[in-house]
Amino acid sequence: MDEPADSLASASFFTGARDVAAGISRREAIARTLKAGAGLSVLSQVGGLLRGATEPPPSPSAPGPVTVTLNINGDAHTLAIEPRVTLLDALREHLGMYGTKKGCDHGQCGACTVLVNGERVNSCLTLAVMHPGDDITTIEGLADGDALHPVQAAFIKHDAFQCGYCTPGQICSAVALIKEGHAKTDAEIREQMAGNICRCGAYQHIVAAVREAMQPTG
Predict the structure, then answer these.
(1) Which segment of 37-51, 133-147, 199-213 scores lowest on mean pLDDT?
(2) How far apart are CA 90 and CA 139, in angstroms?
(3) β-pairing, 135-137 with 66-72?
(4) Whole-model pTM?
């Protein structure tokens, strides 16, 4: 006896007309449909987990500004800056002291060298908020009025620069090197100045300038 039309339509809803034509019972068709639905649900959940694992986490909001007072070249400067601002960017972008140069921004070229409590520091690798109360000296603070620092004068005398981009960092590093007192020979000067790169290749002139500035004045 033929199955009623409404039963045939119900079977078609679950299995499609082809399954009904093939003689699959309604119970078998429903079981197959439930299994397929469960499989799709699992795949959907796995896909969601995989998407969650590959998507980057939401970016944290930027920290708010903090107040810091920096003693630079003998003057106090109070800034409201974000904690992540480097000393280099504080000097250049917030105080307009462009003598300190931004080179590699990774502490590899030495163009951003400044003096912090008399020691040479790559200002691109240290945060401004780490230096309240420290004595910071940039290239702008080395001369005494119109009188050049001995290292500055020696660099000019020996033509120890070409494009001049690395020169502020070279001079600040040389000032600290002389104060440290470790370099006695040309080879030691080269070794102690190795963190300052001159892409113009004026190294022989730089060594000559540092050597002269090391000599005691009588």
Answers:
(1) 37-51
(2) 15
(3) parallel
(4) 0.71
